[in-house]
Specification:
Blueprint lengths: L21 E8 L2 E8 L6 E4 L4 E3 L7 E7 L7 H14 L6 E7 L7 H11 L6 E5 L2 H11 L4 E3 L7 E3 L2 E5 L5 E6 L3 H15 L3
Parallel strand pairs: 5-6, 6-7
Antiparallel strand pairs: 1-2, 3-4, 3-7, 5-10, 8-9, 10-11
Length: 202
């Protein structure tokens, strides 16, 4: 009697794209020249957080994180964005491999104690969700150049600022892996699905 053995087929793990600029770099491996692709990463940064503590990019080493840009007195999209981001916070609460990073674009008003009061109103405690304050040059430069999010001060806009409501997903190597409209529940759900994929990456 012939016995047929079927090999178990392991489903191919989905992989998220890597966004931003890239460059080809030649290096020597095993005595041979090979070309490797180097992707743009989020550069070093230092900001004051809601606890008046200076934090930097090393706090996010070896973790995935979601970044956004907001201001505490925002009368339009920010409350919706952070209501949706709260779902992410609740799902991954106490997961040591996940963090959230909200940058205020109101460099005049959103000093640490204002950010602390805002975080408290949201029900945020601990270090997993960081709210940060920095200079206009630092925050706006990082938003537009590295996270690819448009932000600007505009006296004619509601609240005095204009910004996109993206939730930007960053991997453990600090590469941008996705951007999601934080005002839409279905986009937030997709963000969490993609975070689960990213957490499986080595």
């Amino acid at each position: 009697m012939a016995i047929t053995i079927f090999a178990a087929c392991k489903p191919k793990q989905a992989k998220l794209p890597i966004y931003g600029s890239r460059e080809a770099v030649e290096k020597i491996v095993g005595g041979k020249t090979v070309t490797d692709t180097v992707y743009k990463t989020i550069p070093a940064f230092r900001f004051l957080n809601q606890d008046s503590t200076m934090i930097d990019n090393h706090l996010f080493d070896g973790k995935i994180y979601v970044a956004d840009f907001f201001f505490t007195s925002c009368p339009s999209i920010c409350p919706i964005m952070h209501r949706n981001l709260l779902k992410v916070y609740e799902k991954y609460k106490d997961n040591k491999n996940v963090m959230l990073l909200s940058h205020s674009i109101d460099f005049k008003y959103d000093v640490p104690h204002v950010l602390k009061a805002y975080a408290t109103r949201l029900g945020i405690s601990g270090q997993q969700w960081q709210f940060v304050h920095g200079s206009k040059e630092e925050i706006y430069g990082l938003a537009q150049r590295d996270y690819l999010v448009s932000v600007s001060a505009d006296a004619k806009a509601p609240g005095g600022y204009v910004h996109q409501g993206y939730l930007v997903l960053v991997d453990k190597q600090k590469r941008v892996r996705g951007a999601y409209d934080g005002t839409k529940e279905e986009q937030t759900e997709q963000l969490m699905k993609d975070m689960d994929i990213l957490l499986q990456e080595e």
